[in-house]
Amino acid sequence: AISPDGKMIAVSDVMSLRLFEISSPKGGDEITWSVRRQDPPAGVTSAQLLAFAPDGKHLVAVTASGAAHIIDLDKWVVSSVLKSHLPKASAAAVALAAAVRRRRVDEVNVKPSDLDVPIVSHIQVSTDNQWLVVVTARGGEETDRMVDGLAGTIGGAVHVYNFDTMKLHVSLPPPKTHAVWPPISAVSISPSGVLALAGPSNA
């Protein structure tokens, strides 16, 4: 992710989140760009999704747990952690513990398909910095879910946070033509505040 002013780049893998501050040339014949690495603030070690707010004052970092950490770039602290789009902690903890026990036998990493909990697939901050859209999708193959007694349709959800109060504003119902949200492949918010969601059928 690149900040709107082009002065900061945020990258992450499964192990660590890295932020780089970029300084542009200050004149003269020699064109030199300087890059300075910054360690992430306490509370965030890695992220699966990253997005800068359009005003450049905040960075949204979604960790493996699905929680959205809001990083204040001026104070360099995690100002909020958003979890209202996630399942109840008790249910997630039970599912995770069961999956870990199953996988330890085969010494294989736990995958999202092992857990019946949502994962975050998309995040988007509106251009006026008023709203944060978080899209979740459930992992797992349809056949595997049916065998496990779960819903055959892989559903998800669309959640909208107020980016000022950092509170969940609404969880949108699925389209009238669907019983549950279909998988979302792209998210965009227009300057006028219209939310557009694209599915695999380009609908």
Can you describe this structure?
The chain is mainly beta and 203 residues long. It is 12% helix and 36% strand. The chain has 2 helices and 13 strands, in the order E-E-E-E-E-E-E-H-E-E-H-E-E-E-E. It has helices spanning 89-106, 142-147, and strands at residues 8-12, 17-23, 34-38, 49-52, 58-62, 68-72, 77-82, 118-125, 131-138, 156-162, 167-172, 186-189, 195-198. A 4-stranded antiparallel beta sheet has the order 4-5-6-7, with no helix packed on it. It has a 4-stranded antiparallel beta sheet with strand order 8-9-10-11, with no helix packed on it. Strands 1-2-3 form a 3-stranded antiparallel beta sheet, with no helix packed on it.
SSE blueprint:
Blueprint: E1 8-12, E2 17-23, E3 34-38, E4 49-52, E5 58-62, E6 68-72, E7 77-82, H1 89-106, E8 118-125, E9 131-138, H2 142-147, E10 156-162, E11 167-172, E12 186-189, E13 195-198
Antiparallel strand pairs: 1-2, 2-3, 4-5, 5-6, 6-7, 8-9, 9-10, 10-11, 12-13
Descriptors:
203 residues, mainly beta
Mass-distribution shape: globular
Tally of strands = 13
User: Mean pLDDT, rounded to whole units?
Assistant: 78
Main sheet makeup: 4 strands, antiparallel
The ordered H/E elements are: EEEEEEEHEEHEEEE
Given as residue ranges, the uncertain stretches (5+ residues, pLDDT < 50) are: 104-110, 139-154
How many separate helices?
Answer: 2
Structural class: mainly beta
Output the strand order for the largest sheet: 4-5-6-7
